[in-house]
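Review form for a predicted model. The reviewer records the input and the model, then writes brief findings.
Reviewer: anonymous (R2)
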Amino acid sequence: MSANPIRFILNGEVVETDVVDPTRTVLQFLREDLHLTGTKEGCAEGDCGACTVVLVEVDRSGIDVELKTINSCIQFLPTIDGKELITVEGLRGKDGGLHPVQQAMVDQHGSQCGFCTPGFVMSLYALYRSTPNPSRQEIDDALAGNLCRCTGYRPIIAAAQSMHAQADNWDAREHLDALAHVRRNDDLELDAGGRQFFAPVEVASFARIYAQHPDATILAGGTDIGLWVTKQHRELETVIYTGRVAELLDMRTSDSHLEIGGAVSLTQAIPSIIEQYPGLTELFRRFASPPIRNAGTLGGNIANGSPIGDSMPALMVLGASLVLRQGDDERELGLGDFYHDYQVNDLRPGEFVARVRVPLARDGVLVASQKWSKRFDQDISAVCTAYSLELNGDTVTRFRMACGGVAATIRRAAQCEKAINGAAWSEETIDRACAALADDFTPISDMRASADIRLVAVQNLLRRFWFEARGELNETVYTYGR
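Model under review:
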């Protein structure tokens, strides 16, 4: 295997570089190798947004480009091969002047100490490109991954509301042509001092490489694995990247299911799920932040198996299943049977999540999910619950409930379901079901909540769902107090 260089576009210029460390982050490369120090390091774990940059790729249609924010502090450098990267330095106009987003930040006094400002500018730039007249909610959502200690956010929001007063000189065709120049059509294989990085383009090649290296680390969005490197200082010997495998990036709708490839990003997968199940809108709006959703994948969230993964309770009550592949063989397994213990799942050596199958919505089924955390945006759940309810008049014909953040694994609430199924959809039934939740879970205590509070929260969230299902509670967490 040769030590191939990678090529990508950076602020309009083609960059070609040898990879000396497959897990070197984009942020390290920008600041330490190229001395582009506008992009900052705040947390090194994808939380604060100071390192935000914009990635440009050809969209699914193949005839346009899409821009997405990512956290450069946890994005490994080889993953941007064949793509375009824009940093805050790349926003200056051809005349050297400020971009309209930057000018709006100046005009609205949106910068104080300035450390977080480049990240905010890049998030606003992505919004500027995608949404000509953003609403307050769209602005809030776009900035959910950026933290600031100084401004109180009001002037930054004012900048977002005024930034479209000026136009820029964006030409999508120029970016399409540039991407065609650096595109790689074959597998990427890197060897840096015996540490290997593979980025195949076909699922058969991916399966073959993984069979040859069953101890390899499978890298999807890197939103968790990136922290292994930046926080735990692990040296990953062999990495196999899912982000270029065409079949794993595919998403389609069959007669009965959404078929979501294992490498489809959360940003791409979530709208299709919400289209089927609008009751999940608030949950997914609060799922991490745009840069994390842009990089992270639904398959990776599931395979990671964290008890605080917010997608799994909802998918569990929907009856989602996984297509697991090992070599040329595939098997299907219900998501509820996938987890055995804390981050212990049913994957065999060399086996990976090829597809996630989500049943299409049926008439008469109410689906909802609730997230309880210390803040609205960009926070880990203390408790995440999901529900699926079918009624015949006032009698429950089928009820499902799943909980995350409560115990070592995400799982269904079997005793609670038993107390509700076949019973009247009444307050007395909910009282019995809440008592049964104490038999379903032995909650954990940590810095987010105590065990006692977690149990009370799960019970109260079930009561909230009962009120919502009866149409007696229209406020959401987002609209409350606004």
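Findings: The longest strand covers residues 383-392.
Further findings: The CA atoms of residues 107 and 159 lie 8 Å apart.
Recommendation: see findings above.
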